[in-house]
Amino acid sequence: MLAKVFPIKLKDGNQAAAEAIVQEFAPKGPGAEEGTLSFRVYRDPSNPDYLLFVEHFADQAAYDAHTGSAAYKELIAGRFADLIVEFVEVDHHLLVSL
């Protein structure tokens, strides 16, 4: 299993717009992808214009399919990308799961 974590700083005043795009994307992208095991996006009420993505994929090929999808290209690489200041991509590999 491959886990991806993305802390994302949004441009000021774009929290609502970013959340709307993520809500639109979830069922079209991750919700329709066989290899996407989970897709979670968190907001921090004390930190405006910030989102944390935590995603789990069966393997690297599943992640590549996810980022190659039409929904991802339109909504995340397209509209969402215009709203961010910066993000960090952190890969994690599962060690223990109960």
Automatic annotation (TrEMBL):
Pfam families: ABM. SUPFAM superfamilies: Dimeric alpha+beta barrel. It comes from the Bacteria. Gene3D superfamilies: 3.30.70.100. Residues 2-94 form the ABM domain. Signal peptide: none annotated. Keywords: Monooxygenase, Oxidoreductase. GO terms for molecular function: monooxygenase activity. InterPro entries: ABM_dom (IPR007138), Dimeric_a/b-barrel (IPR011008). The keyword Membrane does not apply. The keyword Oxidoreductase applies. This is Quinol monooxygenase YgiN. It comes from Kribbella pratensis.
